[in-house]
Automatic annotation (TrEMBL):
It is found in: Cell membrane. It is a multi-pass membrane protein. It comes from Halanaerobium saccharolyticum. Keywords: Cell membrane, Membrane, Transmembrane, Transmembrane helix, Transport. This is ACR3 family arsenite transporter. The keyword Transmembrane applies.
Length: 360
């Protein structure tokens, strides 16, 4: 990677954050804001059902367009920082890609299945009916076989990840996802009639990668040419940085306004499902992050590598669970719990990654 990109990346991702006290306050208490947004979202879903009902009309291929727009707010600040000439340099460093591909496709789906089976069908055997436990395990498998596409850009940003390399990691995983998701899930579930919503996968790739990447490239090129590098880094990026956190919080409100009834009607089972999902998240992060440390991978690559494996493409998992098992199924509930668990747990992993940066 060129020295110019390193210098540019260092300033835009680290100095801008430190200089922006408002963003520091946001990040410092982000877990509190997340909790409040979850509560607000559930309350809106219960007390003002017209809100989620109206938003649900703006969907295509089971992808919420309003949520996609908010995710653009989260992803764009990272995309616009990418020095696109550095993508080719990043692609010449295979270690980070190896870590994320092996952990995501050869380890994660199988450990997810193991932890879900162990807790939901063995340890919690007397607390969950057998048939329902099987459906919960199925939902966990759908989550475990779908590495994150959109939200990982947020986690990478919050850990000062290399935006160019993160883009490569996510893009390669998306290519594998298109071909490997259905066979892998069919193998783990033992299903021969699994219907994967391919339109959901392809649309998500377009919405969460292609569009914000194109917008970032065009706007970066325009602003650097007409405003200069100093204004771009010192003014534009500094003012833009809050969009990531604001977009995350608004997305949570919308997501949980849709799931309010499900969460409130199944509080005990949600806690039981959350146990293996939480353990799996920490476990797979430890594998990818620890492997990166042992392999002497730079922290700006190691942190996103761990985050991709730890987080899930929950939009795809939810859509698949609904299309295969039904809206009211245990599998669908398990994927919703994945959404509920992911953000607080991923914020904890962000803190771990930031505090351990000095060891890389």
């Amino acid at each position: 990677m060129s020295n110019n990109f390193k210098k540019e990346n260092s300033k835009t991702e680290i100095e801008v954050k430190n200089e922006d006290n408002s963003l520091s306050i946001f990040e410092k208490y982000l877990s509190v804001w997340v909790g409040l947004c979850i509560v607000i979202g559930v309350a809106i879903g219960r007390l003002w059902p017209a809100f989620p009902n109206t938003l649900s009309k703006f969907e295509y291929a089971q992808v919420s367009i309003p949520v996609a727009i908010l995710i653009w707010f989260m992803i764009y600040p990272m995309m616009v920082q990418i020095d696109f000439s550095s993508i080719f340099e990043a692609g010449k460093k295979p270690k980070g890609l190896t870590v994320t591909l092996v952990s995501n496709w050869l380890i994660k789906p199988f450990t997810m299945y193991f932890f879900a089976w162990l807790f939901l069908q063995v340890i919690f055997k007397n607390l969950i009916p057998a048939g329902l436990a099987q459906e919960y395990v199925a939902g966990a498998i759908l989550l475990g076989a779908a590495p994150c596409t959109a939200m990982v850009f947020v986690w990478s940003y919050l850990t000062d990840g290399d935006p160019a390399y993160t883009l490569i990691q996510v893009s390669v995983n998306d290519l594998v996802l298109i071909f490997a998701y259905a066979p892998l899930v069919m193998f783990l579930l033992g299903l021969n009639n699994l219907t994967v919503p391919w339109d959901t996968i392809l649309l998500s790739v377009i919405l969460y990668i292609v569009i914000p990447l194109t917008a970032g490239y065009l706007s970066r090129k325009y602003l650097l040419r007409h405003k200069g590098k100093e204004w771009f880094e010192g003014v534009f990026l500094k003012n833009l940085s809050e969009l990531t956190v604001i977009g995350l919080l608004l997305t949570l409100i919308i997501l949980f306004s849709f799931q309010g009834d499900v969460i409130l009607n199944n509080p005990f089972h949600i806690l039981l499902i959350a146990v293996p999902l939480t353990i799996q998240t920490f476990f797979i992060f430890a594998i990818a992050y620890g492997w990166s440390k042992l392999w002497s991978i730079n922290h700006s690559v190691a942190a996103p590598a761990g985050m991709i494996g730890a987080s899930n493409f929950f939009e795809l998992a939810v859509a698949t669970a609904i299309s295969v098992f039904g809206l009211q199924s245990g599998a669908a509930l398990a994927t919703v719990v994945g959404v509920l668990v992911e953000v607080p747990v991923m914020l904890a992993l962000v803190k771990i990654a930031n505090k351990t940066r000095k060891y890389f």
